[in-house]
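Re-run with default settings, no changes from the original entry. Doing this only to confirm the output is reproducible before filing.
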Amino acid sequence: MTGTRTIPTRIVPPPLAPGRAFGRLLTRNFYVYRRIWTVVFSGFFEPLFYLFSIGVGIGKLVGDVPGPNGAPVEYAVFVAPALLGSSAMNGAIYESTMNIFFKLKYGKIYDAVLSTPMQPLDIAIGEITWSLGRGALYAGGFLIVMASMGLIESAWGILALPAAVLIGFAFAACGMAATTYMRSWQDFDLVNLIVLPLFLFSGTFYPLSVYPPVFQVFTRFSPLYHSVELLRALTLGAFDWSLAGHIGFLVAMGAAGAYVTSRRLATLLMP
């Protein structure tokens, strides 16, 4: 009986306000990706390999380093939350750039979506949600590895997962906004040109204090730096008012990216 009542709503779905039909795009993505799930997990392993090679391997030679509150911590404990943030970033960026570009320019998926009652805002929210979900999936798996290795020193570390969702939101929104300006596959070289320096120079592998003073100023504008500092504070249980600034930065970044994405999609798909 329930299935009988569901069929008409699938054939002729009830009208919804713009931004509230994004769940249907999530359903579509789920049915597509369940057949290529191995591709989804591919980006999870890069930060995991960094953890074992640098955090654990080289960490034996480095020894302890200053933590967020100045207390010395093991190098692996210092690096692990940074790689957790990188994992969330990778998942969100991989999904919100090349995959979105194919759907937009070649698959014409969104042209078909807009032939239904859905609006550009639904597409923006749906794809950003899907992308941050991929980032959260990477982060969740990485968090389990960290816990099994004893690299989480505070019970507050459980909040690292919702923090990773926020990180995924920020990078997914900005990644999709940037994708709407891409004209060819060659433009994605710029994505790697930005993501790699963020990964290497956002306080990921060493404290900010070792940077030259001028470079420290630029690093504080890195979204991954704010992500790393937030996760590192949670996993080590080191709290201060700077966490509000890190959270505010990521929220503002995600909101700006979502706004630009919805406006750009409306311009490109509904001229």
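The chain has twelve helices and two strands. Residues 37-269 form one domain.
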